Backbone:
């Protein structure tokens, strides 16, 4: 299977579900851990890890997802990551038009977040952090913990509150946190 011919290789139902995951922003991260090996986090009923290995011609050498799907060779999480990878690098022929090696090696990972944050103004970063803190109690507590000048027992208590909030966010109906989310 090749990234450029996914529709010929993946069941149309699974491919459509993968597209839906991409459009909903369920692919949280993709990182190239070594040459041609990509590890992605995909939010579904849980947070699933997808590992994909590609060769230099964008042929898929291996696929692995830790979700419980076992009805076919490719799950919707893997399909979503494959679609993201394909859309990030585009067809091979488009990447090889230039003679410059920098032009030929297009990154498969979206724009570097650190570089974007470093180039942003202080005002826009403050506005972003305030907006994120308003949406999430856990984010607010993490910001407060990271930026407050407290120490000692007060800092320990804030850490406990953050841990409790995170546990409450991820526990199931029986009070347990799934190992994937711990």
Residues:
């Amino acid at each position: 299977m090749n990234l450029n011919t996914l529709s010929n290789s993946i069941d149309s139902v699974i491919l459509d579900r993968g597209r839906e995951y991409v459009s909903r922003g369920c692919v949280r991260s993709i990182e190239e851990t070594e040459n041609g090996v990509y590890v992605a986090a995909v939010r579904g009923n849980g947070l699933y890890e997808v590992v994909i290995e590609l060769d230099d011609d964008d042929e898929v050498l291996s696929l692995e997802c830790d979700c419980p799907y076992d009805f076919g060779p490719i799950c919707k999480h893997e399909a979503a990551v494959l679609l993201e990878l394909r859309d990030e690098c585009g067809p091979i022929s488009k990447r090889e038009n230039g003679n410059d090696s920098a032009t030929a090696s297009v990154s498969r990972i979206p724009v570097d977040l650190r570089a974007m944050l470093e180039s942003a103004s202080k005002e826009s970063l403050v506005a972003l952090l305030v907006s994120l803190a308003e949406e999430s109690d856990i984010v607010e507590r993490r910001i407060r913990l990271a930026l407050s000048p407290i120490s000692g027992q007060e800092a320990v208590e804030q850490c406990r509150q953050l841990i409790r909030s995170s546990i409450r966010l991820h526990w199931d109906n029986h009070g347990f946190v799934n190992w994937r989310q711990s």
Notes: The chain has nine helices and four strands. Residues 91-110 have pLDDT under 50 and may be disordered.
